[in-house]
Each structure stands twice: as C-alpha cells, then as structure tokens.
Amino acid sequence: MISFTIPNMTCGGCAKSVTKALSDVDGQALIETKPATRTVKIKSNIAESTFRTALSAAGYPADPV
C-alpha cells in the first residue's frame, strides 16, 4: 500500500482530479482519497515514484506518509 499526503487536495473536486491522475498510471489500482485529511492510499504494483510524478504533473505534489 502506498500512502501520500497531498496538501492542496482540499475538496471532492480535487479528489476526483487526484484519482484520475493515479488511474491514468494504473487503471487497476485501488485508490482511496480523503480530502478531509488530505491523504490518498493506493494499492498497486507500480512504483511509488511513478505515482508521485503523475500527481506533480497534475498539480498535486505529494509527500509520502
């Protein structure tokens, strides 16, 4: 399980954008976003760095939890 804190994910719209960016990397990943705590959890076999790059490119830089 990969976990990130995303400081600028503050609402449901942000969470949708984050989910889309992550799904574009791995369409089979299980993704759980929580805007209230600004966290996301990803279950995937893809490297953490690949997801971080995709999130940054989408405007949502992430920090590992």
Automatic annotation (TrEMBL):
Q: Which residue spans adopt a coiled-coil conformation according to this UniProt entry?
A: none
Name this polypeptide is given: Heavy-metal-associated domain-containing protein
Q: Where is the HMA domain?
A: 1-63
Recorded GO molecular functions are: metal ion binding
Q: Which organism is it from?
A: Morganella psychrotolerans
Note the superkingdom of the native organism.
Bacteria
